[in-house]
Automatic annotation (TrEMBL):
Keyword field: Membrane, Transmembrane, Transmembrane helix
The organism's place on the tree of life at top rank: Bacteria
Protein's name in the database: HMA domain-containing protein
Residue stretches spanning the membrane: 91-115, 135-154
GO terms assigned for molecular function: metal ion binding
InterPro entries (alphabetical): HMA_dom_sf
Organismal lineage: Bacteria, Pseudomonadati, Pseudomonadota, Alphaproteobacteria, Acetobacterales
């Protein structure tokens, strides 16, 4: 059958199906007790949905008796509402935010060091302290980017 199975269909995960002959054996096993059963198959994922008067546990046993590993699933599995595109955008966004925030924090630290170090404001200062501000900002940006990258994955994992 084509299309999506109805919500009341029993969904089985079937393992050990290697070819057309095995597929036929699974379908015959499922129709043995209910010849009018309607089947929806997704063989690449090893999924079979059955609309039948036979209970789901009996259908699972029938497939196992035919020599395959079968598990009864609850409901039809659906794809997550968020895909890989969302994850890529999240990683790029968090990495960029970590880079920018790291630079801002570094610039603030560099300015604070310039203001608090009495030797930086002394007459005859060569400007070395002022040159430290962009160096600290660049360094903290390079640290902030991987932190943002890691946070993107940790946040995704918690969902």
């Amino acid at each position: 059958m084509t299309g999506d199975p109805p919500p009341d269909a029993v969904v089985l995960s079937v393992q050990g199906v290697r070819g057309a002959l095995d597929r036929m054996r699974v379908e015959q096993a499922l129709r043995r007790d209910d010849p009018a059963a309607r089947l929806w198959t997704n063989w690449p994922q090893g999924m079979v949905a059955v609309q039948s008067v036979v209970p789901g546990e009996a259908l699972r046993r029938a497939v196992q008796d035919a020599g395959f590993i079968a598990a009864l699933l609850h409901g039809v599995p659906t794809a997550p509402e968020r895909g890989i595109g969302e994850m890529i955008l999240r990683v790029i966004g968090f990495t960029f935010a970590g880079f920018v925030l790291g630079g801002l924090v570094g610039a603030a630290l560099g300015i604070a060091a310039l203001m608090l170090d009495p030797s930086c404001n002394a007459p005859g200062d060569s400007g070395g302290c002022a040159m430290g501000i962009p160096m600290i900002a660049i360094g903290t940006s390079l640290l902030g980017a991987p932190i943002g990258f890691a946070l993107a994955f940790l946040r995704r994992r918690r969902r």
